[in-house]
Amino acid sequence: MTKSDLVTEYIAGFPPKVQALLKKVRAAVRKAAPKADEGLSYRIPSYKQGGIVAYFAGFKNHIGFFPPTRDPRLKKLAAKYAGPKGNLQFPYDAKIPFGLIAKLVKANVRLNQSKLKQDKPRKTSKT
Q: I want to staple 49 with a disulfide (CB 3.0 to 4.6 A). Which of 36, 55, 120, 123 is the partner?
């Protein structure tokens, strides 16, 4: 079984209406970060590309999305979805902001890429 199969299996464990929403969240994440590795971590779907890009999970009344953004502009857009621990919560009975999810994922990819560039050791010249 592939890591992607595990995510498919995770989604299949929910009622049909929730499955449809989780599939759309998955598609938004995959489109925003097509090079990200998909799998399960902490028993929920996870996406990694130079570090964590996104986790999402189905709950009783909402879809949880982690991690929240550090981008001030996106933080403002996501504020109304902020949960008690800083994660985002998208209620099933409201319109899910798939465009915002894609922006959050892209911002996390950029952040991870910038961290990787900073972490690369610099070549020193011999004199």
A: 36
Residues 6+ apart with CB under 8 A from 17: 92
The one-letter amino acid at 118: Q
pLDDT > 90? residue 122? no
- 3 pLDDT higher than 90: no
Interval 70-92 mean pLDDT: 90
Position of tokens 């950029």? 110
Domain edges within the chain: 3-119
Average pLDDT of the chain, as a whole number: 90
- The CATH classification number of 3-119 equals 3.90.1150.200
